[in-house]
């Protein structure tokens, strides 16, 4: 099938609260230049997909409060390519809307759905993998997810157990498992049968619409009410009314874990969901003392295993700090042991209790 | 003697490097509003002395690079009351210049010499003590230092051993001891015979000039070359040439430890030299977890014994930090165990090696 039928949906509506205080409600992590390269994670996601899909076929789905940020960071994306959600409703409604929107424009469309806030390395392998994935879903009635070969017993990720091989590197999915404990994660990694679920999906608009009807009929029913308005000037008005009525569920839970035409493509590119400070640490180059420094200048004495993030040109001088997150975000300074990063959500709640939205 | 012959010399030329990164070469600690009261340490020193000495008799001796800061912070002090040192030369040359300057204006002058970067509490007791000190030195050929009753075995201070009592609370000094180790400091405290040397001195201009001639004749000789120019428009020109030739020594070493007419007045006011972050911690009110918070908002989990200092309105969120200094000074963040604070000087050197004067 020609590339002109290929679409990309960049999901860009998250608030990334686990990356507070860098990720803020008015500028979540996907809009941040995390690596000091001059491009935000969203921009990197866009750059990555541009060689694979016609520019005018790239859609960005975001919350309406972030539309201005998207337009600022991606001025080459036209207003019609931005789908503004009036409410936060997890990935299934987001993907459903995009699928209905795309299907209305092009009934033969195939699409890749990708988060905007992950890190992908070894990009040539990503391109290869995505092109092959498009070909597979365009010639099979398949819901395809990309699986990453695990390099450590990560407990923060979802795992995919592989089943029968269809062709080399393309297999049926046997099971999905969310966030296993350390012991089970180790068994998964050792078995060679489990891959990380990268949350990157490929399918045709027709296949995902069918699956939505079959497995989340209330959600599909909500969007069916809009048949005829997608792709027209009435679409946004329709969404304003009907989107908030959608159930808030993930596409994994709504469809992937239930459907029987789910496949995984084993991907060789490097991937990190940048879900937490710890994953940013794990994925960043370290100096001799195993410290990670983002952007700022650091002089560290008797300190190791830390991740430092501070405004450009700030100097951080530390002594006697082991395995900490030090995140200085202009108006907020967070100092927290790396192994307590799951408490950051609670801290954010405590901050809200005391200061309302001032520091969020 | 009438108060019109009483003078005050506020020494204000230090750079306070142990309080880096708050104390900076372009704005040392005496110019900082450390306690968030709206007045800097220098301003607090001025306020404290104002009821005791005629305003026009208060001199501020500082480095020429800080003259603008002094004028900004003390607009009520006229330019003629500011003595601008062209070089850093410790306390003896500073005090010698002030003594020659005052003696030229008023041969009958008595004077109090005080640092500008210490904290004094229970100020009514300070006033009482200073007034009594003036009376003593005006009627005795005495070099008087104020001694503070020690409340802990502080190893960072100088100690004064008391000798024969002249009148209640006014005694001959037996010995001076600089910075004893912990064990000896404890013996000092337990003995009841030792007082902290607050570095606040009272004497007449005549008595200190005599002592300078007797114990540091090279220094006195340098200033004797200027007899006739002090208090005239040529004074600053003379100082520009001759001040840099002065030996860099402290008044304690140059005079106090050698002279035999040295007395101590036992003072009941609260005093802290704010020499280090630890002394600021010791001297500040603590919350239930024994954390000290200067100005900023702090939410602390599982953290105790820390001192936090950050820009106004910054939020600091910490977990798992015990007995640390966390000093966020806009362009520099220092995180350092309290018991390593003596390493801050070395850190400052390291910063200079890498960044020249950028962060100093």
What tags apply to this protein structure?
homodimer, 360 residues, alpha/beta, five-stranded mixed β-barrel, four-stranded mixed sheet, 17 strands, globular
Write out the strand line-up for the largest beta sheet of chain A, numbering strands in chain order: 6-9-7-8-10
The computed structural class of chain A is: alpha/beta
Helix content of chain A: 25-40%
Choose one word for the global shape of chain A: globular
Largest interface: A-B, 33 and 33 residues
The number of helices of chain A is 11
Radius of gyration of chain A over alpha carbons? Answer: 21 Å
* pLDDT averaged over residues of chain A: 93
What does this structure look like?
Two copies of one chain form a homodimer. Chain A has 360 residues and is α/β, with parallel strands linked by helices. Chain A is built from eleven helices and 17 strands. In chain A, the strands form four sheets. Chain A has a five-stranded mixed β-barrel with strand order 6-9-7-8-10. In chain A, α3 (91-105) packs across α6 and α6 (205-215) crosses α7. Chain A is globular, with a radius of gyration of 21 Å. The N and C termini of chain A lie far apart (46 Å). The model of chain A has no long low-confidence stretch (mean pLDDT 93). Chain A binds chain B through residues 21, 297, 299, 301, 310, 313-321, 324, 326, 328, 331-337, 340, 343, 347, 350-351, 354-355, 358-359, and chain B through 21, 297, 299, 301, 310, 313-321, 324, 326, 328, 331-337, 340, 343, 347, 350-351, 354-355, 358-359.
């Amino acid at each position: 099938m020609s590339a002109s039928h290929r679409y990309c949906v960049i999901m860009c509506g998250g608030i990334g609260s686990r990356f507070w205080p860098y990720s803020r409600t008015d500028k979540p992590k996907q809009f941040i230049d995390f690596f000091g390269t001059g491009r935000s994670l969203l921009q990197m996601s866009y750059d990555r997909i541009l060689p694979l899909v016609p520019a005018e076929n790239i859609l960005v789905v975001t919350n309406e409060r972030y539309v201005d940020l998207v337009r600022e960071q991606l001025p080459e994306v036209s207003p019609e390519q931005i789908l503004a959600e009036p409410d936060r409703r997890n990935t299934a409604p987001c993907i459903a809307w995009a699928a209905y929107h795309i299907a209305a424009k092009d009934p033969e469309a195939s699409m890749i759905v990708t988060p905007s806030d992950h890190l992908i390395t070894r990009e040539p392998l990503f391109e290869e993998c995505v092109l092959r994935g498009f070909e597979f879903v365009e010639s099979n009635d398949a819901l395809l997810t990309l699986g990453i070969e695990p390099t450590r017993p990560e407990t923060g990720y979802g795992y995919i157990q592989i089943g029968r091989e269809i062709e080399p590197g393309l297999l049926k999915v046997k099971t999905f498992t969310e966030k296993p404990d350390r012991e089970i994660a180790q068994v998964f990694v050792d078995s060679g049968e489990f891959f990380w679920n990268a949350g990157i999906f490929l399918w045709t608009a027709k296949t995902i619409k069918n699956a939505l009807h079959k497995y989340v009929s209330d959600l599909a029913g909500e969007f069916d009410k809009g048949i005829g308005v997608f792709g027209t000037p009435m679409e946004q008005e329709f969404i304003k009314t009907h989107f908030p009525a959608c159930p808030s569920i993930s596409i994994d839970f709504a469809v992937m874990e239930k459907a029987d035409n789910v496949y995984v493509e084993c991907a060789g590119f490097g991937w990190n969901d940048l879900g937490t400070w710890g994953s940013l640490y794990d994925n960043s180059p370290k100096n001799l003392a195993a410290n990670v420094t983002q952007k700022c200048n650091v002089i560290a004495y008797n300190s190791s295993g830390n991740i430092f993030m501070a405004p450009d040109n700030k100097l951080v001088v530390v002594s006697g700090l082991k395995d900490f997150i030090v995140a200085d975000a202009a108006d907020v300074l967070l100092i927290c042991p790396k192994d307590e990063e799951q408490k950051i959500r609670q801290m954010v709640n405590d901050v809200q209790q005391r200061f309302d939205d001032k520091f969020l």
